[in-house]
């Protein structure tokens, strides 16, 4: 009886230790979400009001040109950032999976940008794209007078400049996830593929990559969440400009929350982004769980 009571007391102590974290999660996270939803249905400006305005803030939100432009930019970044990171990260993972010499050095180099915050990344790429200080200035000093690299000053290219900086910063994480999945694939499959005369590129893209779908799903979820939260790199690189050419939803929310003192409109925008995240991620997580279940059943 004494022995059986010890594990029980141990589990009770663990649950008691986790209780503050659970309370913090409920109050700080779930509570703040519910509070934002409630405020989005009010007429609150600088301070919250306990009134009811229905869907007025949402109607105003979708009649705001700046908000609609920010959604368009998020769509562009979804293609450039998520697509670019997954493609580049996968190629880097395949490269390292060849058991190359100095593998640890390559992993460090590829992961190094991820160690930097988006603020530091924004500062680096702001300098690189600066016409008077960055790469354009350097190449022209070397005699290439026609070289231009001024994307952050051009309304038609600035959002792509932000996307390139984000791809540079995020590819290492996806590389690590995909590489871990690649190292879990049975190497005997490559020996069998060699007997069939299958080339290395075809082996990876036709045999290996379809087996690591959950790793791609995990990468997609992480990248999608990072995309919705994109604020720092835009604020540092472009401040949302020129004009509103690099405006993103998170910056719209922060500006209206702290600078324009319109917490109801900012909360409405936050609720829209929350619904967007759940709409995109729920099917992806469901698909990931089904694929993982099939893989486990196969083993």
Topology:
Blueprint lengths: L1 H39 L15 H7 L2 H32 L6 H13 L2 H12 L5 H7 L16 H25 L5 H8 L4 H9 L4 H16 L3 H6 L11 H11 L3 H36 L1
Family: Belongs to the binding-protein-dependent transport system permease family.
Main location: membrane
Organism: Rhodoferax saidenbachensis
Describe the structure.
With 299 residues, this protein is mainly α. The chain has a single domain, classed as MetI-like (MetI-like fold, Orthogonal Bundle). It has helices at 2-40, 56-62, 65-96, 103-115, 118-129, 135-141, 158-182, 188-195, 200-208, 213-228, 232-237, 249-259, 263-298. Helix 3 (65-96) runs parallel beside helix 7 and helix 12 packs antiparallel against helix 13 (263-298). The longest helix has 39 residues, at 2-40. It starts with a helix and ends with a helix. The model has no long low-confidence stretch (mean pLDDT 87).
Offer a concise description of the structure.
By secondary structure, this protein is mainly alpha-helical. The protein has 13 helices and no strands.
Q: What is the radius of gyration computed over CA atoms, rounded to a whole number of angstroms?
A: 24 Å
What is the oligomer described by this structure? Answer: single chain
The percentage of residues in β strands lies in: under 5%
Tell me the overall shape: globular
Regions with pLDDT < 50 over 5+ consecutive residues? none
Find the count of extended strands (DSSP E, 2+ residues): 0
What CATH first level would be assigned?
Answer: Mainly Alpha
């Amino acid at each position: 009886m004494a022995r059986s009571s010890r594990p029980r007391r141990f589990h009770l102590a663990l649950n008691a230790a986790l209780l503050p974290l659970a309370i913090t999660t409920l109050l700080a996270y779930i509570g703040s979400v519910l509070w934002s939803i409630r405020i989005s249905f009010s007429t609150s400006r600088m301070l919250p009001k306990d009134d009811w305005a229905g869907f007025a803030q949402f109607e105003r939100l979708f009649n705001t040109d700046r908000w609609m432009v920010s959604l368009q930019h998020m769509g562009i970044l979804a293609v450039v950032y998520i697509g670019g990171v997954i493609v580049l990260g996968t190629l880097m993972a395949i490269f390292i999976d060849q058991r190359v010499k100095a593998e640890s050095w390559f992993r460090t180099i590829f992961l190094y940008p991820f160690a930097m915050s988006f603020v530091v990344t924004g500062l680096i790429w702001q300098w690189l794209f600066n016409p008077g200080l960055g790469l354009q200035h350097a190449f022209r000093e070397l005699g290439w007078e026609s070289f231009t690299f001024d994307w952050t000053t051009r309304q038609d290219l600035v959002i792509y400049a932000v996307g390139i900086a984000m791809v540079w910063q995020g590819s290492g994480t996806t590389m690590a996830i995909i590489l871990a999945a690649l190292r879990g694939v049975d190497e005997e499959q490559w020996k069998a593929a060699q007997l069939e005369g299958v080339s290395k590129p075809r082996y990876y893209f036709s045999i290996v990559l379809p087996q690591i779908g959950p790793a791609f799903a995990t990468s997609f979820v992480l990248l999608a969440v990072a995309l919705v939260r994109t604020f720092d790199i835009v604020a540092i690189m472009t401040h949302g400009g020129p004009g509103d050419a690099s405006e993103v939803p998170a910056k719209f929310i922060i500006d209206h929350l702290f600078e324009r003192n319109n917490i109801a409109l900012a909360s409405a925008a936050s609720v829209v982004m929350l619904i967007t995240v759940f709409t995109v991620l729920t099917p992806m997580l469901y698909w990931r769980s089904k694929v993982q279940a099939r893989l486990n059943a196969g083993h």
